[in-house]
Amino acid sequence: MKPFRFGINARDARSRAEWQDKARKIEALGYSTLMVPDHLWPVLAPIPALVSAAAATTTLRVGTNVINNDLRHPVVLAREAATVDLLTDGRLELGLGAGYVRSEYDQAGLRFDRGGVRVERLAESLTIVKELLRGGEVDFAGQHYRVTGHKIHPLPIQRPHPPITIGGNGPRLLTLAAKEADTVNFTGITFARGGTEHDMSAWRVPAIDERMRLVREAAGERFDSLELSAQI
């Protein structure tokens, strides 16, 4: 069993000084990780916020909780992740998700596909991102992405790539996380009725038990190496 870790999900500040002071306090209190969400709401954008927090601390790990895959092409995401890992001295934890808040898509003029399509797109993106972070030249032709002869520079410090978290609730996404992620994040929060209403039913004990069973079954022999994460 992996040791327990505790992190803070932070997302707002009125100035650089306030944000960096918050990061230093989180580190001083003994938390392992400062995580920043990725929403088109009045909150800090995750990538620059992580670099700023790391610049003000020495051991605090920083991560995304979680990147909405539909807001970034995987080539762009891999470049950003590698650069953040370099600039934070190898402290990045890369959290990815399929996106779930319909209002964000509507406001940005993005198509809100059904959940299965968003998870398929995330799976393709994850394949591309992992290979780019490993340093490989990627040629990929999928249903949702095409990449031709691309490599990234710089490469991340953490090899073969920064730890990857996949967060969500649905069976398809949790199966993907169990098979491909280093950490499986049970968010417990989703939007029902086509992505328009909060739904917390995933935090009920029977639902948690079922999701744990699904992850254990999908992970197979790699289950013991997985880290399990939950937002509280």
Task: Please name the defining characteristics of this protein.
single chain; alpha/beta; globular; TIM Barrel; eight-stranded parallel β-sheet
Explain how this protein is built.
By secondary structure, the chain is α/β, with parallel strands linked by helices. It has a domain at 7-167: TIM Barrel (Alpha-Beta Barrel), CATH 3.20.20.30. 40% of the residues lie in helices and 20% in strands. It has 8 helices and 12 strands. Strands 1, 2, 3, 4, 5, 8, 9 and 12 form an 8-stranded parallel sheet that branches. Strand 2, helix 2 (46-55) and strand 3 (61-64) form a beta-alpha-beta unit. Helix 1 packs across helix 2 (46-55), helix 3 packs across helix 5 and helix 6 (171-180) crosses helix 8 (205-219). The two termini are 20 Å apart.
Find the CATH superfamily of the domain at 7-167.
Luciferase-like domain
State the helix count.
8
N→C terminal distance: 20 Å
Determine the mean pLDDT.
Answer: 94
Rg value:
17 Å
Fraction of residues in helix: 40-55%
The largest sheet, given as strand count, sense and whether it forms a barrel, is: 8 strands, parallel
> Structural class of the helices, strands and pairings?
alpha/beta
Order of helices and strands: EHEHEEHEHHEEEHEEHEHE
CATH topology annotation of the domain at 7-167: TIM Barrel
| Quantity of strands, as a count | 12
**Which spans have pLDDT < 50 for at least 5 consecutive residues?**
none
- Oligomeric state of the chains in view: single chain
Looking at the overall shape, the CATH architecture of the domain at 7-167 is Alpha-Beta Barrel
Shape: globular
